[in-house]
Amino acid sequence: MLLMLIELTQSIKMEYENKYQHVPAAKYECLLFDVDDTLYPLSSGLSKACTKNIEEFMIQKLGIEGNKVTEINRVLYKNYGTSMAGLRAVGYNFDHDDYHSFVHGRLPYENLKPDPVMRSLLLSLPIRKVIFSNGDKVHVAKVLRKLGLEDCFERVISFETLNPTNGSSTSDGEDSLKLRGLSSEILDATNCPCQSALPETPIICKPFENAFEQAFNIANINPQKTLFFDDSVRNIQTGKQIGLHTVLVGTSQRTNGADYALESIHNIREALPELWEADNKKSEGVRYSGEVAIQTSVMA
Ligand SMILES: [Mg+2]
Question: How many domains does the chain divide into?
């Protein structure tokens, strides 16, 4: 009889251990968010105004011909992720703070309204939340404040986080002028699919892998346990390659590299209800052990 009881207890113990070990660990430990056109919609008009300001900067500050700026900006943006990274790559020299205040300083921030729906969604998520933006810190802070989301994130990784020195404060010397002369050739090269012809940019920004790697180190992020939200297909694709789980925002069409696609960030709860279950999974584990403990005491 005693032997049977011991065997029974052991089998219950094994059952408990199996069940306990099978409680799934939380799939996501971190949510990583882009800001522009991700936390607010493209229809706000900020992106359009930003492009216009960049083109004005190129004309007024860099002396590029007005009839060429749209095409040059388009090609640089396409190949480098940001216009600034592209302009620096092809040899233009300028102060990063000047660029940001010119380009972002006059954006129609008044178009951004407090978003209490998004705020309560973010605050109810039981997972750490980090911002990862190519924008400068003043711009990111302003956008988050306008949306009423400034206290919803653990930390912000902005342009300055990844590019702590203010770029090129050196004089606009001969080398740069030579490169300017080459700009048109470089732009021709960017139309060919061989990316190796592109000069490197000194700017660290999405969609380049080194930007993601630095962000992971700085914010102690494990990409395998992180869900990344961005409106840029290229950023999503690099993110996926580097191990992140990905959500393309601004369209319901999933493209290569996107695990999920959301027309609006507001759809996050419908598309990803499991994000709110992180706590439930933990309590399931506790409940299992509780049930088994009761059975054991009855048997004994
Ligand atoms: Mg964006």
Answer: 2
